[in-house]
Specification:
The protein is mainly alpha-helical. It contains 3 helices and no strands. The chain has helices at residues 2-27, 32-54, 60-85. The longest helix has 26 residues, at 2-27.
C-alpha cells in the first residue's frame, strides 16, 4: 500500500548498501572487521526504518535520521575502499 511506499526508497538504498558491503568483502576492499561494523550499522538503519513505518507514518525527522545514517555508511564504505586502493 501507499503506507510502506514512504520508505521504499530508503529500504532500496539500504539493500544497495548491503550489496556494496558484500562486494567490498569479496574484492578485499573491506576487511571482515569493517564489514561486521557496517552490517551492524545496517541493522540499526533497518530497525529505525521498521520503527518509523510501524505507525504507518514516516515523519520528516525519521526520514532525515535514516538518510543521515545511510550517508554515514556510504562515506565509511567509500573511505574503506579508497584506503585499500591507495596501496
Amino acid at each position: 500500500g501507499s503506507r510502506s511506499h514512504a520508505t521504499w526508497r530508503e529500504q532500496q538504498r539500504t539493500a544497495e548498501q548491503d550489496q556494496r558491503i558484500r562486494d567490498g568483502q569479496a574484492n578485499g576492499s573491506i576487511t571482515p572487521r569493517e564489514a561486521a561494523w557496517l552490517l551492524d550499522q545496517q541493522r540499526r538503519i533497518r530497525h529505525v526504518e521498521w520503527e518509523a513505518t510501524r505507525d504507518g507514518v514516516l515523519t520528516r525527522d525519521e526520514r532525515h535520521q535514516i538518510r543521515y545514517m545511510q550517508d554515514r555508511v556510504d562515506r565509511s564504505i567509500d573511505r574503506m575502499e579508497t584506503n585499500r586502493h591507495a596501496y
